[in-house]
Amino acid sequence: MLPVVALVGRPNVGKSTLFNRLTRSRDALVADYPGLTRDRQYGQAKVEDHPFIVIDTGGINGNEQGIDALMAEQSLMAIAEADAVLFMVDARDGLTSADIGIADYLRKQNKKIFLVANKVDGIDADSAVAEFYELSLGDTVHKIAAAHGRGVTQLLTLALTPHIEALGEARENDEFDGTQEFSAKTDEEKIAEAPFENDKIKLAIIGKPNVGKSTLTNRILGEDRVVVFDAPGTTRDSVYIPMEHDGREYTLIDTAGIRRRKNVTDVVEKYSVIKTLRAIEDANVCLLIIDAREGITDQDLSLLGFILEAGRSLVLAVNKWDGLEEHVKDRIKTELDRRLGFIDFARIHFISALHGTGVGHLYESVEEAFISATKRISTSMVTKILDMATFDHQPPMSQGRRIKLKYAHAGGYNPPIIVIHGNLAKKLPVSYKRYLMNYYRKSLKIMGTPIRIEFRETS
Ligand code: GDP
Ligand code: GDP
């Protein structure tokens, strides 16, 4: 399970500046998939090869009312679910009563809190931050200038990493741990751990609230034998349901928590983005559900971004396809082409979870995506495909020198990773990388999963 780090503080202290700095790797992804919006609140970050989820909680001050309270709800939930909180204050403004209010709130949460004084550029940092010690949150005030990156690496490596590593070790014994994410792995280790095509498929049902996740989960379970049914430990966990279909074993990762819905007093299931992000990380294949009646929303695109970023296989289901007029269906299909054309590798199904229409065919695409993602590929084959691709279309020049791609090997599965070695390989433009990706996709007949290509410099 990926650790969650929440950025908390009053407005204007520099939360989104730090968020952007921490999640910058995401920009590469956005470039790879034009059409993706970057979520300004939830992102993936990495410190020394330890990935974590970072959340910008926006501006909360701990005593919101009315509309603010509603908007702050996800933020407060994020804090409750976070493994660590970076509490940001503004070194130029000094200690404010809002800071004290937030500190009081955080202290009650019993969380690991790092107090971070931002904007220490161009001022006498030590004297500026002295008063923040009054908040009595730990014995260090971390001094940073998020806008310039100053102090950020130290904050991450000296404070956050040890905490995240300790968390990783503590979770090592968990049943559904994803602790393999915590250490930098060699290609051989990644391959040794990757699932095989006959293995159990971990399938996560993903979608924003009300798209029909529980309806679909119920439908799937109604038609298949439920082997065991485990209730989740806490609200931040999804329900893991073992099941079987056509001789294939699955673990259904139910983010909607249908089990808890049976409790009449708890009808409204709280949607948690973090729970969803963790389910995505833990799955092999994600079934992303979109509501036909709402079209494609930013929230759908942001979930899609996370699925692609995690490298998970993907099947799209447009739900509530029942009772729609033909011209409405046409309009939705046009919108799908226009806005999701960039993920042309994913199968799209039009279903009605309510009536069961189309649900049975989902398995075929899930299976296909999983097999594509786990199919073993040999070094000779990927090198041969590289030769063909570069023969058909030479890599461009970089600063007057020809980029030479020499050989390739498999660097992991689920997602399939292809490692290409060459001269100036890292200088390849995005367009050529995309060309290679498509070439590999076609040659290896890979459907339903993103492919990752990594470049390594060899002289
Ligand atoms: P948020 O409301 O907490 O998300 O704050 P923002 O990240 O939007 O930053 C608020 C303002 O502070 C912006 O004008 C930033 O450019 C500025 N800012 C952020 N970090 C720094 C910093 O390290 N030094 C200085 N001088 N200004 C900063
Ligand atoms: P969740 O929040 O994603 O788990 O969504 P639910 O499964 O609770 O569904 C939300 C609402 O959409 C409920 O009122 C469902 O009855 C309705 N719904 C779900 N699937 C369909 C469908 O295929 N067609 C129609 N017309 N309504 C659906």
UniProtKB/TrEMBL annotation:
<comment type="function">
    <text>GTPase that plays an essential role in the late steps of ribosome biogenesis.</text>
</comment>
<comment type="similarity">
    <text>Belongs to the TRAFAC class TrmE-Era-EngA-EngB-Septin-like GTPase superfamily. EngA (Der) GTPase family.</text>
</comment>
<keyword id="KW-0547">Nucleotide-binding</keyword>
<dbReference type="Pfam" id="PF14714">
    <property type="entry name" value="KH_dom-like"/>
</dbReference>
<feature type="binding site">
    <location>
        <begin position="9"/>
        <end position="16"/>
    </location>
    <ligand>
        <name>GTP 1</name>
    </ligand>
</feature>
<dbReference type="InterPro" id="IPR016484">
    <property type="entry name" value="GTPase_Der"/>
</dbReference>
<dbReference type="GO" id="GO:0042254">
    <property type="term" value="P:ribosome biogenesis"/>
</dbReference>
<dbReference type="InterPro" id="IPR027417">
    <property type="entry name" value="P-loop_NTPase"/>
</dbReference>
<feature type="binding site">
    <location>
        <begin position="56"/>
        <end position="60"/>
    </location>
    <ligand>
        <name>GTP 1</name>
    </ligand>
</feature>
<keyword id="KW-0690">Ribosome biogenesis</keyword>
<dbReference type="InterPro" id="IPR006073">
    <property type="entry name" value="GTP-bd"/>
</dbReference>
<keyword id="KW-0677">Repeat</keyword>
<feature type="domain" description="EngA-type G">
    <location>
        <begin position="3"/>
        <end position="167"/>
    </location>
</feature>
<dbReference type="GO" id="GO:0043022">
    <property type="term" value="F:ribosome binding"/>
</dbReference>
<feature type="binding site">
    <location>
        <begin position="254"/>
        <end position="258"/>
    </location>
    <ligand>
        <name>GTP 2</name>
    </ligand>
</feature>
<protein>
    <recommendedName>
        <fullName>GTPase Der</fullName>
    </recommendedName>
</protein>
<feature type="binding site">
    <location>
        <begin position="118"/>
        <end position="121"/>
    </location>
    <ligand>
        <name>GTP 1</name>
    </ligand>
</feature>
<feature type="binding site">
    <location>
        <begin position="319"/>
        <end position="322"/>
    </location>
    <ligand>
        <name>GTP 2</name>
    </ligand>
</feature>
<dbReference type="InterPro" id="IPR005225">
    <property type="entry name" value="Small_GTP-bd"/>
</dbReference>
<keyword id="KW-0342">GTP-binding</keyword>
<dbReference type="InterPro" id="IPR032859">
    <property type="entry name" value="KH_dom-like"/>
</dbReference>
<dbReference type="Pfam" id="PF01926">
    <property type="entry name" value="MMR_HSR1"/>
</dbReference>
<dbReference type="GO" id="GO:0005525">
    <property type="term" value="F:GTP binding"/>
</dbReference>
<comment type="subunit">
    <text>Associates with the 50S ribosomal subunit.</text>
</comment>
<dbReference type="InterPro" id="IPR003593">
    <property type="entry name" value="AAA+_ATPase"/>
</dbReference>
<feature type="domain" description="EngA-type G">
    <location>
        <begin position="201"/>
        <end position="374"/>
    </location>
</feature>
<feature type="binding site">
    <location>
        <begin position="207"/>
        <end position="214"/>
    </location>
    <ligand>
        <name>GTP 2</name>
    </ligand>
</feature>
<dbReference type="InterPro" id="IPR031166">
    <property type="entry name" value="G_ENGA"/>
</dbReference>
<dbReference type="InterPro" id="IPR015946">
    <property type="entry name" value="KH_dom-like_a/b"/>
</dbReference>
